[in-house]
Specification:
The protein is α/β, with parallel strands linked by helices. It is built from 19 helices and 15 strands. The chain has three domains: about 150 residues, Nitrogenase molybdenum iron protein domain (Rossmann fold); about 200 residues, Nitrogenase molybdenum iron protein domain (Rossmann fold, 3-Layer(aba) Sandwich); about 45 residues, no CATH class. Helix content is about 45%, strand content about 15%. The strands form three sheets. Strands 1-12-11-10-13-14 form a six-stranded parallel sheet, with helices on both faces. Strands 2-7-6-5-8-9 form a six-stranded mixed sheet, with helices on both faces. The structure holds nicotinamide-adenine-dinucleotide (NAD), L-histidinol and zinc ion (ZN). This is Histidinol dehydrogenase. Keywords: Metal-binding, NAD, Oxidoreductase, Zinc.
């Protein structure tokens, strides 16, 4: 089979080389890092003036600082659009409620209470992409989680001009402030704050390479959720797969932007050939065909594996943002996959359903980071605090062990802080030990 696509065959090529080609790390280029660094520095130094300049430079929109904040009521869109938004919102809210972390406690070995408490964050920033398409669903996949968590101030930013439906979705989902700002400069504004926008405690949301790199560089001075970059999908298909559906899923993620990645792993030569033919046919009719063509040229890989197990093993290594399992037994297959952001099981689960309305957030780890990072989840809108409560008897039970640790680490005050609570005997013992070792004794009441 001849093709303009990059096809790897596990029966003919060195498997370790194939593994190497699939293994990737989302590392920004030095040029991109530098560009973002200078944008962040400009915003930090010049605040609103830099924001206005950068918005003119990158978004080609002239805004004065007074125009950044949108205060007007949202214009309701057509009923069918309202219905779609309400449907998605309903699913996401329900998912958010079901996955809300709960305070809990248990008794440890010596009978003390230990547990966790979750408090909603006070003020969060949500980036909603809008450079190449107004990602209304990205507003619905972040803001409702914050709202359901009980976050009081939810600050949304998106590149100008904000599409009216996106503005409506942001307001309906519960954003309390909306700013017409995009790119790395918007992320910088959320982190540093300026005269017109107060800083937030944590920044959420996906975006292009500039947005993601800005979040990465600002991590530490502000909390961030994860680094969700250009969209990607991997499909694992066996001989039962419907080529038309598989191609449609691959093209759906390809149309996001030229940096999207798509990967097909199949054990069937016939399915591979049919999917390639379907891609050709379906791509022809797509409005964003030039973007799709760029992805097919630069970021599309097709792997013919020797069997399904090999495909499942390799895809776990690739750790895609989305994994579609177009196989006869999807649940069994899912159990064999090590890492990915989200799994779509079976023939009737298009990735687009998860993108738009299924319930779990579509904000997911990309660039191989799903090997260790999770997608956006409810817990991330809370600050978790651990709780410890000893009774006198529980403390007395472990005071000797505390004393031992204090001795090992050479931190006598630590040991004393427990001993002093459980009685004079332990304190007297500590004093005697200190005298034996020639340390100056301290008075303990
Ligand atoms: N992983 C996920 O969960 C997820 C979810 C949704 C979207 N996405 C991804 O989000 C991305 C959205 O990207 P987008 O570009 O459409 O919108 P965006 O809003 O992320 O980026 C647009 C902004 O980038 C800035 N910019 C553009 N060119 C620049 C340059 N040369 N230098 C500096 N800044 C520049 C501009 O300020 C502009 O406002 C896509 O890659 C999509 O795949 C990922
Ligand atoms: N596929 C994107 C996440 O990678 C989410 C999205 C928004 N709109 C359409 N799709
Ligand atoms: Zn999508």
């Amino acid at each position: 089979m001849t093709s303009r696509y990059r096809i790897l065959r596990c029966d003919r090529e060195d498997l370790s080389l194939i593994r190497k080609q699939l293994h990737r790390r989302a590392v920004p280029s030095p040029e991109l890092s530098e560009r973002v660094r200078s944008i962040l520095a400009r915003v930090e130094a010049k605040g609103d003036t830099a924001l206005a300049e950068l918005t003119q430079e990158f978004d080609r929109v002239a805004l004065s600082p007074a125009d950044f904040c949108r205060k007007e009521a949202a214009e309701p869109p057509a009923p069918a659009v309202r219905k779609a938004i309400a449907w998605s919102l309903g699913n996401v809210r329900r998912f958010a409620r079901a996955s809300r972390p709960r305070d809990w406690r248990m008794r440890n070995r010596e009978g003390a209470w230990v547990g966790e408490r979750f408090q909603p964050l006070d003020r969060v920033g949500v980036y909603v992409p809008g450079g190449s398409a107004p990602l209304v669903s990205s507003a619905l996949m972040t803001v409702p989680f914050a709202r359901e968590a009980g976050v009081r101030e939810i600050v949304a930013v998106s590149p100008p001009p904000i599409h009216p439906v996106l503005y409506y979705a942001l307001r309906t989902a519960g954003a309390t402030e909306v700013y017409s700002l995009g790119g790395a400069q918007a992320v910088a504004a959320l982190a540093y704050g300026t005269k017109s926008i107060r800083p937030v405690d944590k920044i959420f949301g996906p975006g292009n390479a500039y947005v993601v790199e800005a979040k990465r560089q600002l991590f530490g001075m502000v909390a961030v959720d994860l680094l969700p970059g250009p969209s990607e999908v991997a499909v694992v298909a066996d001989e039962s797969a419907r080529a038309e559906f598989v191609a449609a899923d691959l093209l759906a993620q390809a149309e996001h932007g030229p940096s999207s990645r798509i990967l097909l792993l199949t054990s069937s030569q016939k399915v591979l050939e049919e999917v390639v033919a379907q891609i050709e046919e379906q791509a022809e009719a797509l409005p964003r065909r030039s973007i799709v063509e760029a992805v097919l040229r630069d970021h599309a890989v097709f792997v013919l594996t020797r069997n399904l197990e090999e495909a499942l093993d390799l895809v776990g290594e690739f750790a895609p943002e989305h994994l579609s399992l177009a196989v006869r037994h999807p649940h069994r297959a899912a159990g064999q996959v090590r890492h990915c952001g989200a799994i779509y099981l079976g023939v009737y689960s298009p990735v687009a359903a998860g993108d738009f309305l299924a319930g779990p957030s579509h904000t997911l780890p990309t660039g191989g980071s799903a090997r260790a990072f999770d997608g956006l989840r409810m817990e991330q809108f809370f600050q978790r605090t651990s709780l410890v409560e000893y009774s006198r008897s529980a403390l007395a039970r472990v005071e000797p062990e505390i004393a031992r640790f204090a001795e090992i680490e050479g931190l006598a005050a630590h040991g004393r802080s427990a001993a002093v609570r459980v009685g004079p005997r332990q304190v007297a013992e500590m004093k005697r030990a200190a005298l034996r070792e020639g340390a100056p004794s301290t008075k303990v009441k």
